[in-house]
């Protein structure tokens, strides 16, 4: 029987849901952005749209 070796959790992960026609990717934010966004339903002033990174699908 092979020996199982624990694998470290990767530093970066992508969490997503998908259907045949759609992929939804979830973005994690630090507490200074995530907590106010979850509480107020909108991003706080410290969040900047121009700092976002887009994942581009390959075809």
From TrEMBL:
InterPro entries: DUF4291. It holds the Pfam family DUF4291. PANTHER family: DUF4291 DOMAIN-CONTAINING PROTEIN. This is DUF4291 domain-containing protein.
């Amino acid at each position: 029987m092979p020996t199982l070796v624990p694998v470290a959790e990767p530093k970066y992960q992508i969490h997503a849901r998908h259907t045949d026609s759609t992929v939804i990717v979830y973005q994690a934010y630090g507490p200074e952005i995530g907590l106010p966004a979850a509480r107020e339903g909108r991003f706080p002033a410290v969040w900047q749209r121009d700092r976002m990174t887009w994942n581009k699908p390959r075809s």
